[in-house]
Amino acid sequence: MEIFKIVGLGLIAAILSVVLRSQKPEISLQISIVTGLIIFLFIATRLSYVIEVLSLVAQKIDIDLIYITTIFKIVGIAYISEFGAQVCRDAGEAAIASKIEFAGKVLIMVLAVPILIALLNLLVKLMP
Question: What is the pLDDT of residues 23-82, one digit of tens each?
C-alpha cells in the first residue's frame, strides 16, 4: 500500500531531521522541504484520477466546466498554501507562515466569487 511508503519516507526524514537539527539546522530544513515535495509529487500523480472522474461527472450532469476548474484551483491553493506555511513554521518563521495562510484565504475568496454569484443568480430565479 502506498501509505506505508509515504509514512516510511516521512519517518526516515523526521529521524534524519531531528538528528541533524542540532549540528546542521540548514540541512535539517532542506530535508524537511525535499521530503514534503517528494510526498506532494507522489500524491499529485494520484490526483489526476480524481480530476478525471470529477470532470466526467460534471459533464454527465451538465455543470459548466469553469466551476469544476475553479474548485480544483481552490483546493490546490489550499494545499499549496498549507504546505508553504508548514515549511515556514518548520524554519521557525511563524509570522511568514501566517501571511502565506492569509494570502491563500484571500485568493480562495477571489476565486469563489463567480461560484457565489452563480448560486445567488440561481436562488433569484427559483424565488417566485
Answer: 988 898 899 889 988 998 888 888 888 888 888 888 888 888 888 889 889 999 998 999
Q: What is the pLDDT of residue 63?
A: 81
Whether pTM > 0.85 for this model: the answer is no
Please give the Cα distance from 61 to 119 (Å, whole number).
16
Q: Do residues 87 and 36 lie in contact, with contact meaning Cβ atoms separated by under 8 Å?
A: yes
Count of alpha carbons within 13 angstroms of residue 79, beta-carbon side: 14
Cell numbers at 120, concatenated: 445567488
